[in-house]
Design goal:
The longest helix has 43 residues, at 163-205. Helix 3 (29-51) runs parallel beside helix 5 (67-97) and helix 5 (67-97) runs antiparallel to helix 6 (107-123). Among the domains are: 1-79; 82-178. It has helices spanning 2-7, 11-16, 29-51, 55-61, 67-97, 107-123, 130-140, 146-155, 163-205, and strands at 216-219, 233-240, 252-258, 267-269, 274-277, 292-295, 301-306. The protein has a five-stranded mixed β-sheet with strand order 4-5-1-7-6, with no helix packed on it. It has a two-stranded antiparallel sheet with strand order 2-3. It contains nine helices and seven strands.
């Protein structure tokens, strides 16, 4: 606005104003003409000022009668705005320096949050070079990105690296991390399903046990085994998914199934030609001199205690 006023020869009247005589009747004709000329310039300058204001600012100078008074009112108002702007700048600077990537935050979300603060600072007149923003982002990333931060700092010139270039590099690395995490989860789930299938097959193997000729082999009490061991932890597997750059443990799977042996369980051998059990009370007569071992289909062996 000052330039517009100066281009029309009006800035001097705005800056210095003019002297309003107390008694115009005492002025001669030349003085009256000069006074009228000054008044006209002043009103023209006031009109130019009005034309450059929005409704809010116009309300602040609506009661002023000359250009000098209007300009001083505007200046004082702007000075108040400047003080508010300085306070806001201090707040945003502190916010920018305290920015840290949250543990659950993605690269895209964190960049959006950083750039919101950066853009507000720039709108208030802060000179913020890209290199300062790049360095701030690298310093404030989550620890799982430490290795890629080191790689970027050693291989790139941060002075010429743009914010968009850094964003692209970090997002590509994040996608590779997420893909690896997903593969590990799928492997763990597949292992769980395999264990479940094996347990069902083992359970089916104990069904359908028939009757023989009434004689059998005795085994030590509490040590009976068949295709599936009567009392043991059938399957126990632990998958601990760990990776240096994994944000938090992804999945822990533990399958721990325990079957208690049934006291009345009988086992078949040699095409159902013999019965076997670990309960001595089931035998009418038992020759304890018969010794040896029995091998089952799962390659387990138990000691023979009599026949």
């Amino acid at each position: 606005m000052k330039a517009i006023l100066g281009s029309q020869g009006l800035w001097e009247i705005v800056e210095k104003g003019f002297v309003q005589p107390q008694n115009e009747e005492s002025l001669n004709q030349a003085q009256k003409e000069a006074l009228e000329k000054e008044r006209k310039k002043d009103q023209t300058a006031l009109t130019v000022i009005y034309q450059g204001l929005d409704d809010e600012m116009l309300e602040k100078v609506a009661n002023e009668t000359n250009s000098k008074q209007a300009w001083e009112t505007l200046r004082n108002s702007v000075m108040g705005v400047e003080r508010v702007k300085k306070v806001r700048l201090q707040t945003l600077r502190a916010e920018f320096e305290s920015l840290l990537m949250k543990e659950s935050e993605s690269i895209s979300d964190y960049f959006t949050r950083v750039l919101m603060v950066v853009n507000q600072l720039k709108r208030l007149g802060e000179k913020l070079e890209d290199v300062r923003v790049v360095e701030k982002i690298l310093r404030s990333l989550n620890f799982k990105f430490d290795h890629i931060v080191v790689a970027i700092e050693e291989s790139k010139d941060l002075e010429i690296m743009s914010i968009d270039e850094l964003n692209g590099s970090l997002r590509a690395h994040e996608e590779r991390m997420n893909r690896g995490k997903q593969e590990q989860v799928e492997q763990a789930l597949q292992a769980k399903l395999s264990l479940k299938d094996k347990g069902e097959a083992c359970e089916n193997g104990r069904r359908g046990q028939g009757r023989g000729r009434g004689r059998g082999r005795g085994r030590g009490r509490g040590r009976g085994r068949g295709k599936c061991q009567t009392k043991k932890v059938e399957e126990e597997t632990k998958f601990i998914l760990h990776k240096e750059d994994v944000e938090e443990p992804v999945l822990f799977l533990t399958l721990n199934e325990e079957h208690n042996g049934e006291k009345n369980m009988w086992y078949l051998d040699n095409g159902a030609s013999n019965h076997m059990t670990g309960d001595r009370s089931k035998f009418v007569e038992l020759d304890t001199k018969v010794m040896g071992h029995v091998r089952f289909g799962d390659e387990s062996k138990v000691e023979i205690k009599g026949k």
